[in-house]
């Protein structure tokens, strides 16, 4: 399943590394793991590092995806939820944290599981798109918009004419 990561081009790997580093800095600064002098539990650093790596891989999967596996706004909801859960579980800066006690590592573990699942789904959609026969119809999400919409221009550079309601009813 994750063997596809080995085949990623260098650009995607660099995006993954940059996004992972940025995610770690954001999580660590927001949750207080870095910069305030209060040491968090040992597991919070490990979960923040692993979660940041997973977020980096998910973000990199949005770039250069094959046709049929383009990223949609719906693809971002689970990684964002995982990021928020990871922040809440590793928060040591708040005087009144939302999560306390033994709940925190459980939520952090659930956040990591959610991020692994989101990455697996992205990689699976790419595998299905690459395995599809040319010209075959793929699975289409009717409720999501593309994350990176393509321009409405045709290959000749002229905008496509959209039919009016009268023309489309004929």
What would you note in describing this structure?
Helix content is 52%, strand content 0%. It has 170 residues and is an all-alpha fold. The protein has one domain. Helix 1 runs parallel beside helix 3. It is elongated and about 55 Å long.
Please count the helical segments: 5
Any low-confidence stretches, pLDDT <50, length ≥5? 154-170
Overall pLDDT, averaged? 79
The number of distinct β-strands equals: 0
Shape: elongated
Question: How much helical structure, as a percent, in the residues?
Answer: 40-55%
Element string (H = helix, E = strand): HHHHH
What amount of the residues lies in strands? under 5%
Give the assembly state of these chains: single chain
Count of the separate structural domains = 1
Largest sheet report: none
Radius of gyration: 20 Å
Distance between the termini: 47 Å
Structural class: mainly alpha
SSE map:
Layout: H1 10-31, H2 42-61, H3 77-90, H4 103-131, H5 165-168
Helix pairs in contact: 1-2, 1-3, 2-3, 2-4, 3-4
Please describe the structure with a list of short key phrases separated by commas or semicolons.
0% strand; single chain; mainly alpha; disordered C terminus; 170 residues
Briefly say what this structure is.
The protein has helices spanning 10-31, 42-61, 77-90, 103-131, 165-168. The protein is mostly helical and 170 residues long.
């Amino acid at each position: 399943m994750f063997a596809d990561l080995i085949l990623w081009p260098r650009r995607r790997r660099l995006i993954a590394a940059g996004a992972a580093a940025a995610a770690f800095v954001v999580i660590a600064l927001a949750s207080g793991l870095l910069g305030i002098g209060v040491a968090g539990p040992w597991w919070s650093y490990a979960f923040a590092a692993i979660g940041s790596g997973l977020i980096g891989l998910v973000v990199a999967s949005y770039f250069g995806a094959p046709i049929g596996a383009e990223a949609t706004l719906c693809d971002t909801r689970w990684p964002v939820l995982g990021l928020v859960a990871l922040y809440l579980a590793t928060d040591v800066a708040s005087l009144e944290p939302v999560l306390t006690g033994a709940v925190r590592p459980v939520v952090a573990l659930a956040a990591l599981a959610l991020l692994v699942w989101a990455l697996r789904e992205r990689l699976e959609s790419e595998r299905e798109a690459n395995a599809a026969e040319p010209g075959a119809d793929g699975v289409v999400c009717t409720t999501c918009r593309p994350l990176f919409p393509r321009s409405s221009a045709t290959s000749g550079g002229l905008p496509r004419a959209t039919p009016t309601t009268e023309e489309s009813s004929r």
